[in-house]
Amino acid sequence: MTTVTPAAPRPGTLPLADLRAMFRRVPGHIDAATSGLPLTATADALRSALDAWTAGEATPATYDVSVAASRAAYARVAGVDVTRVAIGAQTSPLVGLVAAAVPDGGRVVVAEDDFTSVTYPFLAHADRGVTVRAVPVGHLAEAAADGCDVVATSLVQSRDGRVADVGAVRAAAARVGAVSLVDVTQAAGWLPLVPAPADHADVTVCSAYKWLCAPRGTAFATTTPAAAARLRPLAANWYAGDDPWASVYGTDMRLASDGRRFDTSPAWLSWVGAAPALDAFARVDVAAVHAHDVGLADDLRGRLGLDPAGSAIVSLADDDGSVRARLDAAGLRVAGRGGGVRLAFHVWNDSDDVDRVVAALDAA
């Protein structure tokens, strides 16, 4: 299989206005935390790939160009060398690599009410005596310092947008010899990841279909060399081979020596759509994206009498479902999460979306 490493444009060379122009405007879609919108280039690439498939012109080597481009672009987003990046389809199997490496009777610390793709893989090892302690996200470092084998958290909490202090978490984990794992799914695309948290966690995982606007079925892991040495490639397969096309038969397993050893075979069409999206987010000035997204979110908070939170996600209490009902009736795309309503502002949103939310709530 041909491995193509495209040129790596410097991050920050794509103006925010140009990135915004790559999306078709969908008024009232305030739900990037559930699923991002596709770039027009992503939709075009998928249509072209379907046409090529229909004509019998699609080949694995052609698809691998998109996989390689996506891997290289994500490495720039995460601020790591491309050799440290593994691809997958979802985050939970990638978290599962770390969970399987916890010793019998080991101890794991997780954030309370974190997304279950981070917590369930560890809970599934209870039969080996693995215990999982859930603590408030602000107390992760303190809990890790008490002793554990792994401390795992989302950088940005899916439920309410709180941002974890992953630097403190990794420092505490290092002091007790634990592995730190950070899920950046709800952060990558709006929260700058360079130089952290890639440098602030032994393992990071990310599903790219939310804020990075790739199709579902595209996910990544990054590992430090020391962490990679502790992980077993549980899904060892031909695509993870040192030479993939020499790894399709037999028992002579020769896996890649770098992050590719943890690859799973890609769902081809998803990666065709991912390549242009990830390239755009690798080139954009992410600080400008952060200012735009958080600016809209904090504007809404202020107009609702809430304090700013520095997150692109806004969570509103909604015990009886009436808030969600009013927003739905106003034609706004939002999500119900954890007994509240979650709004997630991204690059396609503007002040009109904030006005519509306020008007819908004021009308009550």
UniProtKB/TrEMBL annotation:
Q: Give the record's keywords alphabetically.
A: Lyase
Q: Which residue ranges does UniProt annotate as crossing the membrane? A: none
Describe the location of the Aminotransferase class V domain by residue ranges: 101-304
Top-level division of the source organism's lineage = Bacteria
Q: Which GO terms describe its molecular function?
A: lyase activity
The protein's matches in PANTHER family, at most eight in alphabetical order, are given as: CYSTEINE DESULFURASE, PYRIDOXAL PHOSPHATE (PLP)-DEPENDENT ASPARTATE AMINOTRANSFERASE SUPERFAMILY
Q: What is this protein called?
A: Selenocysteine lyase/cysteine desulfurase
Report the source organism. Cellulomonas iranensis
Q: What is the lineage of its organism?
A: Bacteria, Bacillati, Actinomycetota, Actinomycetes, Micrococcales
